[in-house]
Automatic annotation (TrEMBL):
PANTHER family in UniProt: BIFUNCTIONAL TH2 PROTEIN, SI:CH1073-67J19.1-RELATED
Sequence intervals crossing the membrane: none
Record-linked Gene3D superfamilies: Heme oxygenase-like
Enzyme Commission designation: 3.5.99.2
Protein name: Thiaminase/transcriptional activator TenA
Origin species: Methylorubrum rhodinum
Keywords: Hydrolase
Primary enzyme class: hydrolase
Length: 221
């Protein structure tokens, strides 16, 4: 049987290509993305990482064996550590203090993504939760590598690029792919189909997240 990850990547390749070439990432690679757009993105990303950490913690609680419990518990810790690093690094660069961050509400895209992800993490079985979590890991790694291959050394967003194109993140992604494939091996066809639906929806939400930051999509009322 074809591995779940291979099927999922092939089925969602058009969506990944749309993400890879969308204006936000094209301009990020070129170093021409406006500071205001990146600032909007990084604030929402910090909000998202808190929710992502909670979802990973729920995956740990549902994991069937100790090794996976440790993997996802550590992933939850890493998500929060990265969120705090944003406060200490990018937030300082862009003049965002704790009060400003706390007063900034989640954008429609961020709110949708976090709410959907947490609902899946609470209500869905372990296998589907992994299908929902995988795109955030995998797409960021692939986008990071693609941008790294094209960006100049003096790109103003080099720190972000290096994080997601780096070996440490690549190892975390490989571990997530392995865990998801492992979970899918014993899944029934119906459960595997639910994993694919979760993966596809998370991929769509990844696009909306970047696009919302680029176009400054806010609540209309």
């Amino acid at each position: 049987m074809t591995r779940f990850s291979e099927e999922a990547w092939a089925r969602n390749l058009a969506a990944y290509e749309a993400i890879r070439t969308m204006p936000f990432n094209a301009e990020l690679a070129a170093g021409t993305l406006s500071a205001e757009r990146f600032r909007r993105y990084i604030v929402q990303d910090a909000h998202y990482l808190i929710g992502f950490g909670r979802a990973l913690a729920l995956a740990a609680a549902k994991a069937p064996d100790p090794d996976r419990i440790v993997q996802f518990a550590r992933g939850a810790e890493t998500a929060i550590v990265v969120e705090r690093a944003l406060h200490g690094g990018f937030f300082k660069t862009y003049g965002i203090d704790a009060a400003t961050f706390a007063a900034t509400s989640l954008s429609p895209a961020c709110d949708h993504y976090v709410s959907w992800l947490l609902a899946a993490a609470y209500a869905e079985p372990y296998e589907v939760v992994l299908g929902a979590l995988l795109p955030c890991f995998w797409i960021y790694a692939e986008v990071g590598r693609d941008i790294f291959s094209k960006s100049a050394a003096d790109n103003p967003y080099r720190a972000w690029i290096d994080t997601y194109a780096g070996e440490e993140f690549a190892q975390a992604v490989a571990a997530m792919i392995a865990a998801t494939d492992e979970a899918a091996e014993g899944a029934s066809p119906a459960l595997r189909a639910r994993m694919h639906r979760a993966y596809a929806r998370a991929t769509q939400l990844e696009y909306l997240f970047w696009d919302g930051a680029y176009r400054d999509v806010a609540w209309p009322v």
